[in-house]
């Protein structure tokens, strides 16, 4: 029998549901929601925990000493039982004043909440709240974090903008209303008594809440008791103080153990713990909700829109339209191998990667297609990706993981929702690192599959990994795919084929043998291979015989055996031979031609050469006149040479325009080459060789043999460069897309409009003309074709690159171009190219976003003596009547990098100077292309701000130190976390690798230095001796001595092998950075130079010695110790790093600046830093 209590609760649940149906439900979210989503939840989420964290921050950052009486007084308040809110507000006032005084208030808030979303382990509560919102509920929160809007995909509504508050009340502005502010807007955060009471008396907030009390039903969710969430408590007390003005029922969800009474609010108990909120909210939703079709959610009816955000290489699929006609393994061929692969797919073998390697032409791709097709038919294929060199988006890894994710979403329905969730959480995921794409779009969603409902395995088929153009991408793919072993709820098999090339062999050496199975295709018994080739030939030649009405049994066993012998184990030979015979008018004559072209003693490669040359020679008819033959030879060399050296494939239509060969002549030249080229009937589809071995043959004079067909690679590149320039000269113009508005963004123009105005051949010319010029080995000279093109079309070219989103590639090309011109005798051209680089770097951000700004902002703010500005000043729009005052010439600033949301704490160049790493208080590390300023990767794994970064001497490992008391080692190429080093009891402030790369030293607020084995992450030594936190560490050139500096104003020298203190120096200042000189006798610091003698001499001599190098000291950039550049206050950095003559500066705003200098005289000698030696 149902109890009265149960009936009453059912009535209340029905009223809440009715309010939701009537669009009258308002949900106010408290700290319990965040505590429910993060388990175990960090103490800093609660109010008192947050305040304790702030007091610790003041001490850790040395803004207040540990023995400060006022600090300890306020700490004592927090330790009392039954703390009064007013007293805690007093502590908050002290905390906010101290943090604000040191300009650390926003930084501290961001360090607490900025990366909190990465700690969310149970996002289900946000999904439930999102469903409430999608059904019409309004969402408010008293929390400072951004979890609700991030996971519900909503905007933040700010309390301090009265107009927004009124719009929110009227329902014309949607989002999450932060009653007590968000850490993103530090001025709004209600922390101290002043702001606390300001909110309580705010007319706008009061009116909003009064409206909801009088006309809606309010559901208070995530109530914490007492000082867990006093903001929530204050809001509840305010609401209940208006008891006489509350005509509606309002509800408060509480835990079973909470003895909370806020009359007349109705309390509903949902369970023992915060995590019990989700099932209760689900009950209020009355089961899983149907998501409205007009909302972008995780539901099926909009998931396709979300998936469209992921770039998809459609030609990568095993069954792509472009691969129509590609063969599969015939019955009774590859029998044993296919059985082995099938058994591996179905087994529980821990070797989750199957690597099939083999020489060119041995049939790897055919086997891969067969494996993919078989598993596709069984609904076991997760995804396939067939790489192809020179194939555009299938020649590199740019679209690899996004394509895999798109296919998984289509092939594995249960994972589709999880992939869509990942896209909603990070809509820019396609622009992030390969590691992030793999983990967010593939590994993460698969890990959420339910084992009970999905016990089977899935397979990824990846073909021709060796044809991926970037060796770093190859290495990254192998390392990340190896992480499939971490999946527990589903078994992911990876079938991978490639030639046995060094980068791939090296990549597999880094994966434990217990995790991959290898099969070498060309080591199969010749008898088995010959049998399979024989079966292939019989099948295809029988079909050809039927098509040509030849006798049954043609061409006979003896002929088949001779063909098998000529194939020499290469399936590509057999496939090419069959295509050649089928495409001929007289198939028997073609068969005879092939049989006459081979010898029994030839090698497999020679047999392949013979069949390629046979096909080519048969394309030249014997009845052609000699002049016609020579013209056709030249045309074929141009066409075939271009096909094999182009950086991305072209259709017949676009290739004819690029080569300036009429379409009709192109078709005549190609009509007899179907045996070696895939020539689609649709002339808009890409034209490519059937097999990559044809490229090797055509470009190798020894292999090709016939000078009529051999292609000299540099000559082809030279002609393509010339054609690209000619094509751009006739095609490019200002505002080529006809948008007629300088502020139009790239993202606002439909891609079809861009493709119409910039057809494929023009896009190709814009992106690759400099690469062709570089590979041609051509010498440049002043006023040549290249120089004249740039003086007319440089801005047009930059505009075009922006429309096709290739500005970074263009800057890379300009840098290469500058190197070419430097080796040529062309001073005027070199000067112009150098100015082009400065111009592009300086204005990159504006040009990338709005292409027509190249004629506006970019020209206007460029220095007056810029050669580019002088050349193109007439292109500034006429509606700009007066130009701003700008500098006369370029200064040392190369470019400004923007991407971090708050302070940059540390910057470091990779040893080769190609990558700049930056660490920020936003909890991330970014890797930048030092040449273009483009973001290469964003590394996210720390839970607090990142204080320091350092590259290993070989540049392969990046170490990062964080306020979360850990050091992380990252693979600098892939962005994968290699190790997390734990052991410090305080924030880690500084790090250094030993020059031999074997040891990593880390310095911490816990007053210690730890020495780690850089290869395995084990602690070697913990060095104790400083009395305050350690600010800097550096190794001597021989890796034997470690120097450490501390807030205690001492520098210690340690024996890196034993951990013994060798010397201690007192200094008159706090040292934050230092490095040893090459001979180990000097330590260059941010405050001067320490001069040390060999440690065995007994005394330290303070003496003057020459010092080289650039660094920043206070407001000056110094060379040695000579001041060379004064920095205005707004340009004084938080951190710096130097590579050669380039210095990178990191700022509190999150931006980075590059400065470059050219020195012709040695720097002055530095004076010694005052110090006093102590000996241990």
TrEMBL record:
Pfam families: NPHP3_N, SIR2_2, WD40. SMART domains: WD40 (SM00320). The keyword Zinc does not apply. Keywords: Repeat, WD repeat. It comes from the Eukaryota. PROSITE patterns: WD_REPEATS_2 (PS50082), WD_REPEATS_REGION (PS50294). InterPro entries: ASTRA_WD_repeat, DHS-like_NAD/FAD-binding_dom, NPHP3-like_N, P-loop_NTPase, WD40/YVTN_repeat-like_dom_sf, WD40_PAC1, WD40_repeat_dom_sf, WD40_rpt. Residues 340-499 form the Nephrocystin 3-like N-terminal domain. WD repeats lie at residues 897-938, 939-980, 981-1022, 1023-1064. This is Nephrocystin 3-like N-terminal domain-containing protein. It comes from Zopfia rhizophila CBS 207.26.
């Amino acid at each position: 029998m149902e109890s009265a209590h149960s009936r009453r609760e059912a009535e209340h649940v029905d009223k809440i549901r009715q309010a939701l149906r009537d669009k009258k439900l308002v949900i106010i979210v408290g700290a319990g929601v965040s505590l429910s989503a993060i388990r175990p939840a960090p103490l800093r989420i609660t109010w008192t925990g947050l305040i304790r964290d702030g007091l610790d921050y003041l001490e850790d950052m040395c803004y207040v000493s540990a023995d400060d009486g006022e600090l300890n007084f306020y700490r004592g308040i927090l330790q009392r039982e039954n703390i009064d809110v007013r007293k805690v507000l007093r502590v908050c006032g002290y905390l906010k004043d101290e943090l604000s005084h040191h300009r650390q208030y926003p930084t501290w808030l961001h360090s607490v909440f900025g990366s909190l979303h990465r700690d969310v382990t149970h996002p289900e509560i946000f999904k439930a709240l999102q469903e409430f919102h999608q059904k019409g509920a309004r969402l408010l929160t008293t929390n400072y974090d951004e979890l609700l809007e991030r996971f519900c995909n909503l905007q933040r509504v700010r309390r301090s903008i009265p107009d927004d508050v009124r719009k929110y009340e009227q329902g014309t502005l949607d989002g999450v209303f932060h009653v007590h502010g968000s850490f993103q807007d530090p001025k709004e955060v209600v922390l101290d008594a002043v702001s606390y009471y300001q909110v309580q008396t705010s007319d706008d907030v009061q009116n909003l809440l009064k409206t909801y009390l009088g006309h809606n039903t309010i559901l208070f969710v995530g109530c914490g008791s007492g000082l867990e969430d006093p903001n929530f408590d204050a809001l509840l007390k305010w609401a209940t103080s208006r008891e006489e003005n509350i005509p509606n029922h309002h509800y408060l969800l509480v835990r079973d153990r909470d003895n909370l009474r806020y009359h007349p609010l109705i309390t509903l108990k949902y369970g023992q713990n915060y995590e019990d909120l989700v099932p209760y909210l689900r009950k209020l939703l009355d089961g899983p909700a149907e998501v409205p079709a007009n909302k972008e959610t995780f539901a099926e009816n909009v998931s396709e829109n979300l998936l469209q955000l992921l770039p998809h290489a459609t030609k990568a699929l095993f069954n792509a339209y472009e691969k129509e006609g590609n063969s599969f393994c015939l019955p009774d061929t590859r029998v044993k191998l296919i059985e082995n692969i099938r058994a591996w797919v179905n087994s529980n073998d821990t070797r989750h990667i199957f690597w099939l390697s083999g020489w060119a032409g041995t049939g790897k791709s055919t086997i891969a297609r067969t494996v993919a097709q078989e598993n596709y038919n069984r609904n076991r294929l997760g995804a396939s990706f067939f790489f192809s060199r020179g194939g555009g988006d299938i020649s590199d890894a740019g679209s690899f993981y996004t394509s895999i994710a798109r296919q998984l979403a289509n092939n594995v329905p249960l994972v589709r929702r999880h992939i869509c969730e990942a896209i909603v959480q990070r809509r820019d995921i396609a622009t992030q690192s390969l590691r992030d794409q793999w983990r967010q779009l593939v590994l993460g969603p698969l890990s959420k599959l339910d084992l009970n409902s999905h016990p089977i395995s899935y397979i990824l088929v990846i073909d021709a990994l060796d044809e991926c153009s970037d060796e770093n991408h190859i290495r990254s793919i192998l390392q990340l795919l190896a992480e499939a072993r971490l999946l527990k709820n589903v078994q992911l098999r990876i079938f991978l084929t490639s030639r046995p090339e060094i980068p791939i062999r090296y990549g597999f050496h880094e994966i434990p043998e217990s995790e991959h199975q290898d099969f070498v295709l060309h080591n199969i018994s010749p008898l088995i291979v010959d049998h399979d080739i024989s079966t292939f030939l019989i099948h295809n030649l029988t079909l050809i015989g039927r098509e040509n009405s030849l006798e049954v049994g043609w061409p006979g066993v003896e002929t088949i055996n001779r063909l098998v012998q000529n194939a020499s184990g290469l399936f590509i030979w057999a496939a090419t031979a069959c295509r050649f015979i089928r495409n001929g008018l007289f198939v028997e004559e073609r068969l005879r031609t092939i049989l006459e072209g081979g010898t029994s003693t030839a090698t497999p490669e020679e047999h392949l050469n013979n069949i390629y040359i046979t096909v080519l020679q048969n394309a030249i008819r014997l009845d052609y006149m000699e002049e016609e033959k020579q013209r056709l030879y030249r045309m074929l060399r141009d066409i075939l040479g271009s096909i094999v050296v182009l950086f991305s494939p072209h259709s017949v239509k676009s290739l004819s325009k690029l080569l300036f060969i009429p379409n009709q002549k192109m078709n005549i030249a190609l009509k007899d080459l179907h045996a070696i080229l895939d020539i689609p009937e649709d002339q808009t589809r890409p034209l490519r060789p059937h097999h990559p071995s044809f490229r090797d043959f055509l470009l190798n004079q020894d292999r090709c043999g016939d000078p009529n067909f051999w292609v000299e690679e540099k000559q082809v590149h030279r002609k393509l460069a010339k054609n690209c320039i000619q094509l751009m000269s006739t095609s490019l113009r200002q505002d080529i897309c006809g948008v007629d508005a300088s502020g139009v963004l790239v993202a606002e123009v439909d891609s079809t409009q861009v493709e119409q105005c910039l057809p494929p051949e023009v896009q190709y010319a814009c992106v690759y003309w400099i690469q062709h010029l570089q590979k041609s080995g051509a010498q440049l000279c002043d006023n040549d074709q290249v120089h004249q093109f740039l003086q007319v079309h440089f801005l047009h070219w930059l505009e075009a690159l922006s429309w096709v989103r290739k500005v970074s590639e263009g800057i890379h090309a300009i840098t290469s171009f500058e190197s070419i011109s430097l080796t040529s005798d062309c001073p005027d051209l070199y000067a112009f190219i150098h100015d082009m680089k400065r111009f592009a770097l300086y204005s990159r951000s504006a040009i990338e976003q709005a292409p027509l700004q190249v004629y506006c902002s970019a020209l206007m703010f460029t220095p007056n003596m810029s050669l580019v500005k002088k050349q193109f000043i007439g292109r500034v729009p006429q509606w700009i009547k007066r130009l701003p005052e700008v500098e006369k010439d370029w200064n040392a600033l190369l470019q400004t990098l923007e991407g971090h949301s708050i302070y940059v704490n540390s910057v470091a160049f990779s040893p080769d100077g190609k990558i700049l790493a930056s660490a920020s208080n936003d909890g991330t590390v970014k890797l930048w292309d030092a040449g273009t300023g483009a973001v290469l990767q964003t590394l996210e794994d720390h839970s607090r701000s990142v204080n320091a970064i350092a590259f290993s001497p070989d540049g392969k490992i990046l170490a990062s130190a964080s306020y979360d008391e850990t050091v992380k080692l990252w693979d600098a190429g892939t962005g994968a976390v290699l190790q997390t080093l734990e052991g410090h009891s305080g924030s880690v402030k500084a790090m250094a690798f030993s020059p031999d790369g074997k040891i990593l030293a880390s310095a911490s607020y816990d007053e210690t230095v730890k020495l780690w084995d850089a290869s395995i992450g084990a602690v070697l030594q913990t060095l104790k001796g400083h009395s305050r936190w350690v600010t800097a560490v550096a190794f001597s050139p021989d890796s034997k001595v470690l120097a450490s500096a501390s807030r205690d104003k001492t520098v210690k020298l340690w024996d890196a092998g034993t951990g013994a203190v060798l010397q201690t120096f007192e200094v008159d200042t706090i040292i934050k950075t230092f490095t040893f000189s090459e001979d180990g006798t000097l330590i260059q610091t941010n405050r001067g130079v320490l001069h040390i003698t060999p440690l065995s001499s007994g005394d330290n001599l303070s003496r003057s010695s020459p010092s080289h190098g650039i660094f920043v000291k206070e407001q000056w950039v110094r060379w040695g110790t000579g001041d060379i550049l004064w920095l205005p206050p707004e340009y004084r950095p938080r951190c710096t790093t130097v590579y050669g003559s380039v210095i990178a500066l990191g700022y509190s705003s999150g931006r980075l600046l590059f400065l470059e200098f050219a020195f012709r005289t040695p720097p002055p000698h530095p004076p010694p830093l005052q110090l006093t030696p102590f000996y241990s």
